[in-house]
Amino acid sequence: MNSAVPVTPEPFSTDEARRVRAIWSELDLPGIVDVHTHFMPRPVMDKVWAYFDSVGPLVGREWPITYRADEDVRVDTLREFGVRAYSSLVYPHKPNMAEWLNGWAHDFAAGHDDCLHTATFYPEESAHTYVSRAIQAGTQVFKCHIQVGDFSPTDSLLDGVWAQIADSQVPVIIHCGSGPAPGTFTGPEPIRELLHRFPSLPLIVAHMGMPEYTAFLDLAFEYPNVHLDTTMAFTDFAEEDAPFPADYLPRLADAGEKILFGSDFPNIPYGYTHALEAIIRLDLGADWLRDVFYRNGSRLFGIG
């Protein structure tokens, strides 16, 4: 489907909503906290979808967008799934873009009280100032995309940003692993250097740090404010090229309070139910699942 073609609103699958609700209901949870979802200005979302439409040669297979629909349909879909809180992760790929995205995300959160107030940043002279404004305006989570932005997290232009984030303890969902394809600055070492300089940084490593799972999980044990989100990890799609090492499952079990559920909705090439079931089949226990699907995110973001 060409992303330039207007999206026709279609109702979500009531059967899928029933299956998602059954999962969290059977765990005696009030719903799901999904820390990794994307809502963006329509022109930006169109470009993201166009990227995934053409990403086949890069990853060696097609990447269909399962929940390609108008914004209001996507919001309703998450609500019908029983998602109590979600994010509008935006990210810039060039200078002079982040502050505009922050304005859009602020307005989106103001109109959707179940959306975490989201913001982003880029290494540029103005970053310190607009990040300060975002924190003062009530930002609950930042998004940092090392791969798409193609910048080092240790860039000196971000020193003031990281210092403010460390002081405010607003979590940062950071895409820093080398999946689906390595970037110039991806991998655990730049993050290890960043944490050496700012050890109290509240980082949420996206995609479990795929494919460098073990190194990023080790960092989460080493630094008290480092978490990981499950986005796309453990699914059939991810396991085909970047399987989670079976011998690290006991360590993953021990990291229960460090793991947050994320889906990458709507940009996933499979159903939402599969993202949940892929985690369930790890067989790490019901209490571990309760932490991952709801309690950890609820605690971190103050969700009742």
UniProtKB/TrEMBL annotation:
Q: Which SUPFAM superfamilies match?
A: Metallo-dependent hydrolases
Q: A single GO CC term, please?
A: cytoplasm
* Listed GO biological process terms: secondary metabolic process
| Recorded GO MF terms | carboxy-lyase activity; hydrolase activity
Keywords, sorted A to Z: Hydrolase, Lyase
Q: Which Pfam families match?
A: Amidohydro_2
Q: Where is the Amidohydrolase-related domain?
A: 33-303
PANTHER family reported for this sequence: 2-AMINO-3-CARBOXYLMUCONATE-6-SEMIALDEHYDE DECARBOXYLASE, ISO-OROTATE DECARBOXYLASE (EUROFUNG)
In its UniProt entry, what is this protein called? Answer: Amidohydrolase
